[in-house]
Amino acid sequence: MKFYDYFRSSAAYRVRIVMNLKGVEAERIFVNLFKGEQRAESFREISPSGLVPVLEHDGNRIFQSLAIIDYLDALYPEPPMVPSDAAGRARVLGIALAISADIHPLGNLRVLNHVEHEVGGGKAGRAAWIAHWVHDGLAALEARLSTEKQTGTFCHGEAPGIADACLVPQIFFARRFDLDLGAYPTLVRIDAACNALPAFADAHPMKQPDAA
User: Fold this and answer.
1) Are 89 and 95 in contact (CB under 8 A)?
2) Mean of pLDDT values over 87-102
3) Same domain, yes or no, for 92 and 194?
4) 60-63 and 27-30 beta bridge pairing
5) Residue 71: pLDDT band with limits 50, 70, 90
6) What's the N-to-C CA distance of the chain in angstroms?
7) Which of 73, 78, 169, 171 has CB atoms 3.0–4.6 Å from 191's, for a disulfide?
8) Statement: the pTM of the whole predicted model exceeds 0.85
9) Alpha-carbon gap, residue 39 to 57, rounded angstroms
10) pLDDT of residue 53
């Protein structure tokens, strides 16, 4: 099993968390997005989009973090990343998608670079863009998780899953850009509970071999 990774990629961070929760080991190949290694022809042959993460296993090449997590969940069912009941599964996947599809793409490095350099926003425009979209998404999540009865120690009940694996990297991203998280006490509480677990703590970007 090979895992193409970058320490500060939120998407790769999600997969690292799940691999740790399941005790899955892989050969890790680091692609430095900041240095533009994702644009190298050799990596484009592996990932035509130039994005990480990518998982190679048993002749299969899997793209997109949630698809990789689903693949790992099928191969290694314990602990499960989604509830077994239909309503719980839908809720957890909805939370994961709200982060990975609605919030995260707008803070992706290639989007931020485009806002700063191509659209002409500059560093101030980049910062304003980040603050607007991250706060917009986190506010919606806080409204849900703070009121829904299914929320427990973690996003859904008393065991971490795919929703938590998505939330923690997004909170890290917000803190990295010095965003005030005071309006999101439920999200901050869940993030703290997650990071108290070795599987989450060991996946932290600054603990990765390629951290710079």
Assistant:
1) no
2) 98
3) yes
4) unpaired
5) very high
6) 25
7) 171
8) yes
9) 23
10) 98
Q: How many domains does the chain have?
A: 2
Token pair 């609605």 is found at 102
CA distance linking residue 191 with residue 168, whole number of Å:
6
- Domain assignment present for residue 207? The answer is no
CB 135 within 8 A of CB 179: yes
CATH number of the domain enclosing 40: 3.40.30.10
The sign one gets for the Cα dihedral 92, 95, 99, 101 is positive
* Token pair in block for residue 204: 């932290």
Name the residue type at position 104. Answer: H
- Output the six-digit token pair for 212: 């710079």
208 occurs within a structural domain: no
Range of the domain at 63: 2-79
Same domain, 23 and 127: no
Residue 17 has pLDDT above 90, yes or no: yes
Same domain, 177 and 95: yes
Determine the Cα–Cα distance for residues 193 and 173; give it in Å rounded to an integer: 17
CB 165 within 8 A of CB 156: no
How many other C-beta atoms are found inside a 10 Å radius of the C-beta of residue 23?
10
Task: Name the band, by pLDDT with cuts 50, 70 and 90, for residue 8.
Answer: very high
